[in-house]
Write a structure and sequence with these properties.
Blueprint lengths: L22 E6 L7 H11 L3 E6 L1 H6 L2 H8 L12 H6 L6 E7 L1 H9 L5 H12 L3 E5 L1 E2 H4 L2 H10 L4 E2 L3 E3 L2 E3 L3 H13 L8 E6 L4 E4 L2 E3 L6 H12 L3 E6 L11 E4 L3 H12 L5 E4 L6 E3 L18 E3 L7 H4 L4 E8 L4 H15 L3 E6 L10 E2 L2 E3 L4 E3 L3 E2 H20 L2
Parallel strand pairs: 1-2, 1-3, 3-4, 4-6, 9-12, 9-14, 12-13, 14-17, 17-18
Antiparallel strand pairs: 5-8, 7-8, 10-11, 15-16, 18-20, 19-22, 20-21
Length: about 425
């Protein structure tokens, strides 16, 4: 679909070469800010990229497709035909990134809910399912942007795609300027990452231990941190497999997901996967420490005043990893409640040595949670030192975590 003959391509690389060889799909939706997409496409080209535009029917009413074809030197896609355009430009590794610039609330809602009624929405759905990076640049009235349904859709999509937040001005959520888009795309496509193409196993979520056919014991883990970290790794080009307990958060698109329920299922799946030569194994599941000693096949009578249950200690999954994956870079998690930072570091380092892990991520799940549940603080410990994140949103916590994993993995492998 990408051309190298059109005269408009004479500008390619005229202002820089950071995006040389990068294939970019730019989706333009029916916002009055659509006129900025031409400038943005040309700016990306001037820094070396090849750009192909896709228009929604509403965008085509604002700007003719001929204009985008002239601007980019590539045919503008406004409908799907026998050439299977959605597969040709948005399937796995067919393009380097798909940009929605500008993005209306309507298009964001379609992508969040799997609605494919235009060429543009089908291309976005294909990109999301194939793991192609997507960057969304919203543009709409402020009242629409702050609508609870729109924010819900954005929050859902943030598990799998990146957003460039709009500038709120004059009662409008205005799309970012082309120069800001260029900076973001350059950062995404050219920022060095030592983890690109590495195999990573992420074990996340709670476990659920059955007592009888209608009752079970579990914990309050949502799986959010594991899902967010898996998303960040996928966006950085890692091949991610998740062994995932019954968490409330949906795993990111692009991950191979192995669903488990009990700690025994999680143990079996994790050990089996660990033997498959993963570069990195990240153990962040909230697996049960105890499981009912006996499963009652019939419902326990609830007429009594009390009930006595016997629980059996479960083995720690992380303690079995080294035998299954002696060469993998192993990251563990240690959670405590209401202890000093010094004690947290000491306990985390002891667990690091016991499990023969390379890094241990520690946090105090009681520290500030009641007053500030949206934020968290972690301490990352290795055999000699530790790093503290400070109190941040979970999205920023996982970025800090990923950076430390990259840093220590590179040190260990001499990259």
């Amino acid at each position: 679909m990408y051309s190298d003959k059109h005269s408009s391509l004479d500008i390619t690389g005229s202002e820089g070469t950071a995006l040389n060889g990068k294939k970019i799909v730019m989706c333009i939706t029916g916002s009055v800010a659509a006129y900025k997409a031409i400038e943005a496409a040309r700016l990306l080209m001037r820094h070396g990229a090849s750009v192909q535009c896709v228009q929604s029917p509403a965008a085509a009413k604002l700007i003719t497709s001929t204009y985008f074809t002239w601007a980019t030197g590539n045919p503008t896609v406004s409908s799907l035909g026998g050439d299977m355009e959605h597969i040709e430009i948005a399937d796995h590794k067919k393009s380097d990134i798909v940009i929605v610039y500008p993005a209306t609330a309507n298009t964001i809602g379609k992508l969040a809910n799997g609605v494919d009624d235009t060429a543009l929405s089908t291309i976005l759905t294909t990109a999301l399912g194939s793991g192609t990076p997507i960057l969304i640049c919203p543009a709409m009235h402020d009242a629409i942007y702050n609508n609870v349904a729109v924010q819900r859709n954005i929050k859902f999509l943030e598990q799998s795609v990146r957003f460039l937040s709009p500038k709120i001005s004059e009662g409008k959520a205005k799309v970012v300027e082309p120069s800001e888009l260029l900076d973001a795309v350059t950062d995404i496509l050219t920022k060095p990452t030592v983890l690109r193409d590495r195999k990573v196993l992420v074990v996340a979520g709670p476990t659920l231990e059955r007592i009888d056919p209608v009752r079970a014991i579990t914990n309050m883990s949502t799986g959010m941190t594991g899902v967010l970290l898996a998303k960040e790794l996928i966006l950085d080009g890692c091949n991610v497999t998740m062994v995932y307990g019954p968490g409330r958060e949906r795993p990111p698109s692009g991950a191979k997901v192995i669903n488990v329920t009990s700690v025994s299922e999680m143990m079996e799946a994790t050990i089996r996967e660990s033997r498959e030569h993963y570069d990195i194994v990240i153990m962040m599941a909230a697996a049960a420490d105890y499981t009912p000693s006996e499963y009652n096949r019939s419902k326990i009578d609830s007429t009594g005043d009390d009930i006595k249950l016997v629980f059996t200690k479960t083995p720690k999954i992380i303690d079995r990893i080294r035998d299954a994956a002696p060469d993998s870079f192993l990251v563990g998690f240690k959670a405590e409640v209401n202890i000093s930072e010094e004690d947290l570091i000491r306990i985390a380092r002891a667990k690091l040595l016991e499990s023969k892990a390379d890094l241990m991520v520690a946090n105090d799940v009681g520290d500030g949670y009641q007053s500030d549940p949206e934020n968290n603080k972690i301490i990352i410990v290795d055999a000699e030192a530790h790093s503290t994140s400070g109190r941040k949103k979970k999205q920023d916590i996982v970025k800090f975590m990923k950076e430390k994993i990259e840093e220590k993995w590179a040190e260990k492998t001499n990259l």
